[in-house]
Amino acid sequence: MYDDTQMVTSYVTGDILGDHEVLKRLRAFLCRMGREADQGEVGIVIDGTYFGIIDYNDEVEE
Amino acid sequence: MKKEDKSRIAEALGASRVVEVGPKTIGGPLDLLALREEFNQRLRSSGGRPTDPAWTVTRLVPFKEDNWTRLQDLASEIGVSGRRVGPAQVAALLIESSLEELEVGQWQEALEASRSAPLRSQPQAAEAAQVTYNQFDDWVQRGWIVPAGRRGHERSYGADEIVRARWLHAISRMTTDIAAMANAVRNCDLSARYLVVTDAENISTVPTRSHLYRLLEAPGSHLVIDQLPERRKLLGLPPFPGDSNEEFRVRRAV
Question: Is B150 helix (H, G, I), strand (E, B) or coil?
Answer without folding.
Answer: strand
